[in-house]
Amino acid sequence: MYTSIANSFADNARYVERLIDFDRDVVDIMIMSLDGLKKDVPPQFHSFAARIDRLAHVIRDIRNNESLKAKYGTVCNQAVVLLVSHFASAVGDLFRKGVSAAFDREGNDALLNEELKLTFRDMKDKNWNLKGAAGELLIAKKDLTSQDMQSTVRAFETYVGVKIPKDLRANNIILGQAARHVIVHAGALITDRMIKQVAAASPRTLMQKLEPGGSLVFTKDEVLELRDEMLRFVEDLVSKLEAHQ
Predict the structure, then answer these.
(1) Which of 1, 91, 101, 163 lies at a CB distance of 3.0 to 4.6 Å from 146, suitable for a disulfide?
(2) pTM higher than 0.90, yes or no?
(3) Are both 236 and 131 inside the same structural domain?
């Protein structure tokens, strides 16, 4: 029930990795084209073949040294935005399924006693299937968001009975969530609000030092580290949900 959500998030994370590697893909195509062109050069035109070799060597150096990466800070930042969005979607879907499953367990008083203000239109829009729609209704009526770790942790513990540890992994994801906000809303400038948001997210390995007013620029390695933290978080959450059934 939960594994398909984790697999979908893993697929989306791979697409994000391909995005930040698009320059290497372009360079590889250029090298393959030059190698093919060289094979078509007649032996008597060895000087032209040598020029092709030199050009291919320059391009290989660009690829091997990742010389173009400095130009793609914006791409890496947008990759973070995508990762956080995909992560929030996956965690939200897990919460919805977790809430539906929680109705079948005894002793879940926090969920069963939760009061929500609903209209008949709300119920009609959900096809009168309140059990299946309970997670969605909680998210909407309680203004829960999967782009905020504190809200996520509280919601899973309160309504699903699953405890999420406040550890280094969670702290790195909090950094990513805060970064997404300033990338989208503040032109990637580090704000006082962001610094306050991540102040308690310690220890962490991602961007341990932030200067107010500085520019937020992710590297490829940082994007991949954030991706890996999110993948492991989702995998662990799925394991907890499955063990809780």
Answers:
(1) 91
(2) no
(3) yes
